[in-house]
Design a protein that fits this description.
By secondary structure, the chain is α/β, with parallel strands linked by helices. It has nine helices and 15 strands. It has a domain of 176 residues: Glutathione S-transferase Yfyf (Class Pi), Chain A, domain 2 (Up-down Bundle). Helix content is 40%, strand content 24%. The strands form three sheets. A six-stranded antiparallel beta sheet has the order 2-1-4-5-6-7, covered by helices on one side. Helix 4 crosses helix 5 and helix 5 crosses helix 8. It is globular, with a radius of gyration of 22 Å.
Length: 367
């Protein structure tokens, strides 16, 4: 599955625009503020129904316009598909796949997988553990689509247990029923923990290799740190029961996979605390490339990579390595202010788009 084109209407700074992507590398270039990041954001939004940059979706609608729309044309061999998202502030998003309304684009089988590198995404390394947990769960769902339901099931049971704790604190519910929710929570928690652990194991070696290739000094590693050490359901229930007085005092469940951590390390020290911003950028890029490698191997589906301002802090050797990695298979879109930063940008197999405020010019479309 590959993206053929994206059409934008009243999205960010674009009134109307269209961009065609090549089968391999597409380079988007133009001055700062021209709309390069907006184009990458539109590609992500059109394929997922959400933005990688903001939670306030009103920002996506061009100033003064009533609504925004993004349409993505796809090709799967000789078969064509279409995804579309319409956004009117204050109204539910209108999403469709091949013209049929859908609740979630993430559940559409013909949707391409995506991986995105934006400067803002350093929050994945620098931010709270919840950001890394969510990212890991998204990777699990991309790797094994059916397992995404296990994360949702855990969240539902956790919500029910928290509601019961609130009821007990308020004197509206009995403690007698907590054991039922403890057992359900334990069952789903162990499944979720196993999914995450298996995913991190698959990522460990390619992450270390990509980090080394990109120039991150020292030994890079991933460390999944589950809150529970229970070996079975009974042990997990016992952990929950031991912590129940504290849960009751705080008003919510304090134990379980919703408190787990994923640490990115260099020489066994967390890059979150001990890495420079440049080292954190390299680690994030290495993680995304590792995920791409695993997905290509395990699912025979290579994610579309969206990379914004990724080359500026790499030396010429690392740029060459990254360019070769991206050219090895699958689609990639790189945004840059300077074409000279992209090795091989002028090659005939590279698609080039020049962006100026509100407009996209197709300079070259690779066959």
């Amino acid at each position: 599955m590959r993206v053929v084109s994206v059409q934008l209407r009243d999205f960010r700074t674009y009134t109307r625009a269209e961009a065609h992507l090549g089968k391999g590398l597409t380079v988007v270039h133009g001055p700062n503020g021209a709309g390069k990041s907006n184009l990458l954001e539109a590609l992500y939004f059109g394929c997922t129904g959400r933005s990688p940059r903001t939670r306030n979706e009103r920002e996506l609608v061009r100033f003064g316009a009533p609504a925004a729309r993004v349409v993505v044309q796809l090709a799967d061999g000789s078969r064509a598909h279409e995804l579309s998202v319409g956004l009117e502030p204050g109204q539910p998003k209108r999403m469709s796949s091949d013209g049929a309304p859908v609740e979630r684009l993430l559940d559409v089988e013909t949707r391409p997988l995506l991986s995105v590198f934006l400067p803002d995404r350093l929050e994945l390394l620098k931010g709270a553990p919840t950001v890394r947990r969510a990212h890991l769960d998204q990777f699990v769902a991309a790797l094994w689509p059916a397992r995404g339901a296990d994360r949702r099931a855990y969240s539902q049971v956790l919500s029910q247990r928290n509601a019961l704790i609130a009821g007990i604190r308020a004197g509206r519910a009995s403690r007698a029923s907590i054991s039922t929710w403890d057992r359900q929570l334990a069952r789903h928690a162990l499944v979720l923990r196993e999914h995450r652990s298996t995913a991190v194991t698959l990522l460990a070696t390619p992450f270390a290799e990509r980090a080394s290739q990109l120039g991150l000094t020292g030994a890079a590693s991933l460390d999944y740190r589950p809150r529970s050490r229970a070996l079975d359901e009974e042990e997990f229930v016992a952990e929950l029961q031991a912590r129940f007085p504290g849960d009751l005092e705080r008003g919510f469940s304090t134990h379980g996979p919703h408190r787990d951590e994923l640490a990115l390390l260099r020489d066994d020290r967390e890059l979150r605390s001990y890495g420079s911003q440049g080292e954190q950028r390299l680690a994030l890029l290495a993680l995304l490339l590792a995920e791409r490698t695993v997905l290509a191997r395990e699912r025979s589906r290579t994610p579309l990579m969206l990379l914004d301002d990724v080359m500026s802090e790499l030396d010429s050797q690392r740029r060459e390595l990254l360019a070769r990695e991206l050219s090895a298979g699958g689609q990639s879109v790189i945004a840059t202010t300077d074409l000279a930063h992209i090795p091989g940008a002028g090659a005939p197999d590279v698609t080039r788009l020049r962006v100026s405020p509100g407009a996209i010019l197709q300079e070259a479309l690779a066959a």
